[in-house]
Each structure stands twice: as structure tokens, then as C-alpha cells.
Design a protein that fits this description.
Layout: E1 2-6, H1 11-25, E2 34-41, E3 44-51, E4 54-62, E5 66-72, H2 81-97
Antiparallel strand pairs: 1-5, 2-3, 3-4, 4-5
Helix pairs in contact: 1-2
Length: about 100
Amino acid sequence: MKFEIPHSLGRAEAKRRIENGLPALERHIPGGGTVSSSWTAEDKLALQISAMGQSVRVAIEVEDALVRGEIEVPLMLSMMSGAIRDFVEKSSRIMLEKPGPSRA
């Protein structure tokens, strides 16, 4: 499943906001869970969200005016794929909206 979120932050600021929002993401997983993340390239983020014994993989690419994402949902969670997509997209939008702490 793919998603796109337009923004007017510029690539560096969008990346910073996403990075700052990642620690809070884990607290918002329904039923609890874990999130692991790594930047696989300068503007590409790989996330693994694990809950209920299942893992969802999310690939995010940050561009100057757009954040693109692709979500891989395991077969066991396919009935919940719409809700998972909504959660990931909403969480991404919230991270982009909130400036978060500055890294001085």
C-alpha cells in the first residue's frame, strides 16, 4: 500500500520532524508494540512496526515537497490493512505538522 503526503517544509525540515517524531510513535501503537527505524539512504527511512507477534514494514522517502511511503502488511494482518495504512499515514502527517525540539 502506498501513500503520499504533500508538505511545504523542504526536505531537511521534513526529515528532521519525522526523525523527532519517531520516539513517540511507539506509544501510539494500539495494543502496544515496538518500532525500529534506520535511514537506509540520506532521504530514505525504513521502519519496522511490531505488535501482536506481527511486523509491518514501512519504507519512507522524503522529498522537497512530498513524503512518499509504502507499507508492507503481512498476510495475517491483511484484514486490518486499511486501519494500518490510516495509522501510518496519520502518524506521518502529525510528525510533519509538529516542529518538535530543535537539535542545537
